[in-house]
Design goal:
The chain has one domain. Strands 1-4-5-2-3 form a five-stranded antiparallel β-sheet. The chain contains two helices and five strands; from the N terminus they run H-E-E-E-H-E-E. It is an alpha+beta fold and 106 residues long.
Amino acid sequence: MKRVVVCSLAAGLVALTGCVSPMCPVGSVAGSIYTDVSGPVAATGNTGGNKMGQATSTGILGFATGDSSIKAAAANGGITKISHVDYHTTSVLGVYATTTVTVYGE
């Protein structure tokens, strides 16, 4: 009986723990132990500008918060004409993850 209780508690704890996965927008690679990747999201016909804006979202132990949208990144950099967008995502053991979107333009 004791063994059943211990196994039930262990299964319950595993079910209650959340994992946070990186939000990679374009066919990216995600490691189950550690991820640290960057890549492109989009490019436009606008010429490159001298402004840059970033927006980040973060997840810890199954809870995620933040706004890593292109719109938020452009607003943070005061950008009205976007030339291109990149992302960077990091994840450690599915416990901690961040995604940063970087917008370039004028």
